[in-house]
Design goal:
Helix content is 10%, strand content 28%. With 173 residues, it is mainly beta. The chain has a single domain, classed as 3 Solenoid (UDP N-Acetylglucosamine Acyltransferase, domain 1), CATH 2.160.10.10. The chain has a seven-stranded mixed sheet with strand order 2-5-8-13-16-18-19, with no helix packed on it. The protein has a six-stranded parallel sheet with strand order 1-3-6-9-14-17, with no helix packed on it. A four-stranded parallel sheet has the order 4-7-12-15, with no helix packed on it. Strand 18 (150-153) and strand 19 form a beta hairpin. The N and C termini lie far apart (50 Å).
Length: 173
């Protein structure tokens, strides 16, 4: 037991040294791939395997289930949830406390997710993709894929417009 606790403490100290922008109260699974410039807020939980790109901000109290791929220059606001598992009786495994049937969520580059947003592929058994440069407004619930540069709002989320071409962020190469 002492050896196990020692390994856990060494692992946590190593993780804090490698990722100084991850708050200590954040719970991050060992299979999560982070970049050094990723910021993870207090009390956030990220389950693995999840891949997170460069220059990503994840706010306070954000819950991310696996499998999720997050691109570069993404902002996820406070209190948001990204849920992939089917919690129906046929998909839930009570032994492992995990969902056996999952559909991935893919968040492309330059996406802005405001706070209190729910993005879910659970129960629909299809992949949800947030297109490049899209904006999800506060409190929206997204259950379907979102086209590039779209602005979504509401519960369930509905398309209310597109980001104008002059306001789109140009990729720095």
């Amino acid at each position: 037991m002492k050896l196990l606790m020692h390994k856990l403490i060494v692992y946590l100290k190593d993780r804090l040294y490698k990722y100084p922008n991850v708050r200590r109260s954040a719970c991050i699974h060992p299979l999560v791939r982070l970049q050094k410039d990723t910021v993870v807020g207090k009390w956030s939980q990220i389950n693995g395997p999840t891949s997170i790109g460069k220059n990503v901000f994840i706010g306070r109290n954000v819950h991310i289930c696996e499998p999720i791929t997050i691109g570069d220059n993404v902002t996820i606001g406070h209190l948001s949830q990204l849920v992939t598992g089917d919690t129906g009786l046929d998909g839930f495994n009570p032994v492992t406390q995990n969902c056996d049937k999952v559909s991935p969520i893919v968040i492309e580059d330059d996406v802005f997710i405001n706070h209190s947003v729910t993005i879910s592929s659970a129960g629909f058994k299809k992949k949800v993709t947030l297109g490049k440069g899209c904006i999800i407004m506060m409190g929206a619930s997204v259950f379907e894929s979102v086209p590039a540069y779209a602005v979504m709002q509401g519960n369930p989320a509905k398309l209310i417009g597109y980001v104008e071409e002059k306001n789109r962020r140009q990729a720095i190469e």
